[in-house]
Amino acid sequence: MAIPAQELRPRGLSPARPAGGRPVTRPLSFGAPGPRAREDLAEVMSRVARGDQQAFATLYDAVAPLVFGIVLRVVRDRAQSEEVTQEVMIDLWRQAARFRPEAGSVTAWAATIAHRRAVDRVRSAQAASDREHARATREHTTAFDEVAEQVETRLESEQVRRCLRALTELQRQAVTLAYYRGLTYREVAQTLGAPLPTVKTRLRDGLIRLRDCMGVGS
Question: Region annotation Disordered: residue ranges (predicted)?
């Protein structure tokens, strides 16, 4: 029973967005329809289920204003509400065969679909906004962290180099070999050709002077 979407506006029916901006031209009372009206719409829906486009035009005029009002109250945006209204009417065309009069009126069914579609639109828009905000926040945070790390590393490196220059030659050699090249105390002693206890003393004294120079608490 599928037909092109553009054909869902039968001859004589308003387009989705006419000059006046409303999805339909003929207003409909928002009061509950009487028993006869419910019976008539149920018959109209059965004809729609058989692919009757003129019946769909009648259905559109009858329920589109109600659908638009429900959607607008949820979405709060007129243009989007018109789009969602058209989506609901397409749903009614495509799902007409699923309508069961004993389960409720046509207007109640249309209202349920309208509310669900409107909520989905709001949630989708909110999710897109949240993703964009998270992406922007992540990019900003990452950029900030990278810059902060670079600045901190640069300042620390300059401070370390300055403090290393304040050490004696032997202290600087021992600290450099042990903490920048990763040598063990014994390997440092072998590299410098000095006794192990002497190397340990140089390292201890050198680290104490570095700590005091860099303002690190003991």
Answer: 1-34
